[in-house]
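Blinded run. Sample ID left blank on purpose so nobody reads anything into the name before looking at the predicted structure. Input follows.
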Amino acid sequence: MRQLRTAMLKRGFVPLVLWALFLAGLLVQAGAPRLHIEHNAFAIPESLTSNGTIRPADIVARERWMQTLSAVLTLTGALGLAICCRVRRQHELREVRVQTSSAQ
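Blinded prediction complete.
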């Protein structure tokens, strides 16, 4: 099992998935509607009220959901990449230590 995990890290499958998660989080953030606050109230853009009915609670809930989704995806990707990089570097250091000890 450990050898399979190391082989997947070397091939780059896991980092590729983590980069995809990170970028998906950034794309969700870029595509989220922006609610601005003016005079202690939400200023709802006309594009969100074009169908005639205005339900501020639904609009705010959607905004919060998209912000939460973006944060979860971005943080998962970033932390996963950091852990993956650390594991890879530790593995490389072990290989160097083995090679130097066997050369002596």
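Unblinding after everyone has recorded impressions. The first strand starts at residue 36 and ends at 38.
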